[in-house]
Specification:
alpha/beta; Arc Repressor Mutant, subunit A; Aspartate Aminotransferase, domain 1; Aspartate Aminotransferase, domain 2; four-stranded antiparallel sheet
Length: 503
């Protein structure tokens, strides 16, 4: 019998070579069990590693390893003179997990991630039209030629060639002259927004947000401690004068000048000028979310607000945010942020503390995709594809639904279907999910502004051949008695989360 340990505790260890587990693990688990059960009291002395090894017919190294593991886990204290003893406050058994996990911040995301597109789903490009073979070839080339320089920590701002490729694209396509050092690669739109908030915001700072607006962006700013000021949007975009009346000293203004979501309007030239003048006078910063700029015209993208600052007598107050989610595919979750040169060093320091970049391989592939001209050709092709699909769906909806519903052919990657006042758009959207449709209600997106009931219908993955069937399925839903559900600020479902590309 080993002092302090009953014989029964180690009897089976002599046969342990047959049960698969390493001997040192069997020894440590047996001692750990005796301690947890109280058979070995705190302070009890264990035999030396040599003595225990002899009695168990194992090597001394095996016992040493078992003792070392137990010591590292807090079960044993090992001292040369005092030998090996049970710790005075040995680690107890691991706490049992609660039967119910806490409710996630954004319910529905985990269960719906990775699903194939549902009918009318927002925030998705035309996946069937993406050049997957070309993309796979570019990715395979980089995967096969991985160098040592690619295996070490990369620059905090992102892959250098990608930053330069984006700078070239912005200078030519968006009229934004900038250096690669001003560009930061982020994990989508929300990654860029988090980087901005961490760099420029203090708790309690006022931030203009469009009303109605994009809920996850609002949540990101609130998590940073911002005090949000909903500013109404009309047919000319953000009402700057209303924003000044509500909070003239706001720190930031988050706007979507090219294609406001969800109304699909563009910021008028007069409002752009007012916004820039306010930012310059107030010392505020404008976050330009460039959502929808690439596809909202048949021939070219709308000018960026950031480009106007470079043409007028203003200090640059614009932080330009772009994302490849709606242009390439959202699984990439790759975005970028362009900051004024005066802020580049500040953002460089913050970026080093926020490890939120996409994988290096993805960054290298996107860089090649741009440099080799594939990106420009893809944009040109997709403008035609989306124009055709949008017109097909609008025509089908008007033909199938008749005059009972108003179909608005707004800018952006969706169609807005206005509902009669007696219909509940939230209940309809919830019912749609049970019919494999991802329809988004517009009414919960307003804070102070009442949008009225309406449905946002994504058209990117609806071909002209399937548009009429899609309209018929929607009509069937609209004429089916609804299972009413309570209204919520944001449903938490993945298709609503992707109402704007965030990544």
């Amino acid at each position: 019998m080993i002092k302090g340990i009953p014989d029964v505790e180690f009897a089976n260890l002599r046969l342990g070579r047959r049960n698969g587990a390493p001997l040192h693990q069997q020894i440590s688990e047996r001692i750990k069990g005796a301690i947890s059960a109280g058979s070995l009291a705190p302070g009890a002395r264990l035999p030396s590693s040599r003595s225990l090894a002899s009695q168990l017919s194992v090597s001394r190294a095996t016992v040493e390893l078992a003792y070392s593991i137990l010591s590292g886990e807090g079960y044993l204290n090992r001292q040369n003179a005092a030998g090996t003893r049970v710790a005075s406050c040995p680690a107890g058994p691991l706490p049992q997990p609660s039967e119910r996990l806490p409710q996630p911040l954004m319910p529905g995301l985990a269960s719906e991630a990775g699903q194939l597109p549902r009918l009318f789903q927002l925030g998705l490009p035309a996946l069937d039209a993406f050049p997957r073979k070309l993309w796979s070839r570019l990715a395979g080339r980089h995967a096969r030629s991985l160098s040592f320089s690619n295996m070490v920590y990369q620059a905090t701002g992102g892959f250098g060639p990608l930053r330069q490729a984006i700078a070239n694209h912005l200078a030519i396509g968006r009229g934004i002259p900038c250096r690669s050092e001003q560009i930061f690669i982020t994990a989508g739109f929300l990654g860029a927004l988090a980087l901005i908030a961490r760099t420029l915001l203090n708790k309690g700072d006022e931030v203009w947000v469009e009303d109605p607006n994009f809920s996850p962006a609002r949540h990101t700013l609130e998590l940073a401690g911002a005090h949000l000021i909903p500013v109404p949007v009309d047919e000319e975009g953000l009402n700057v004068q209303a924003g000044v009346a509500l909070a003239s000293a706001a720190r930031l203004a988050l706007v979507t000048p090219a294609t406001q979501f969800p109304l699909g309007v563009a910021l008028s030239p007069q409002r752009r000028s007012q916004l820039m003048s306010w930012a310059a006078d107030a010392g505020a910063w404008v976050i330009e979310d460039d959502y929808g700029s690439e596809f909202n015209r048949a021939d070219r993208a709308a000018p960026a607000v950031a480009s106007a600052f470079n043409c007028l007598d203003h200090v640059n107050r614009v932080l330009h945010v772009g994302s490849f989610s709606h242009v390439l595919f959202p699984g990439l979750r790759l975005g970028y942020l362009v900051v004024p040169a005066s802020l580049a060093d500040d953002f460089e320091r913050t970026s080093a503390l926020l490890p939120s970049q996409p994988s290096l391989l993805d960054q290298m592939v996107v860089a090649d995709f741009i440099f080799q001209g594939h990106f420009g050709r893809h944009l040109a092709r997709m403008r035609g594809v989306y124009a055709e699909r949008k017109h097909a769906l609008v025509d089908a909806l008007r033909h199938v639904l008749g005059d009972s519903f108003q179909v608005e052919e707004s800018r952006g990657m969706h169609v807005l279907l206005r509902l009669p006042p007696n219909l509940d758009d939230v209940a309809i959207a919830n019912q749609a999910r049970t019919h494999a449709m991802a329809i988004t209600a517009i009414s919960p997106m307003g804070s102070r502004v009442s949008t009225g009931p309406g449905l946002l219908l994504g058209f990117a993955n609806i071909t002209p051949d399937t548009a009429n069937d899609a309209a018929l399925r929607l009509k069937s839903l609209l004429t089916t008695p609804l299972q009413r559900e309570s209204r919520v600020q944001w449903s938490g479902h993945l298709e609503d989360f992707w109402s704007m590309p965030v990544g």
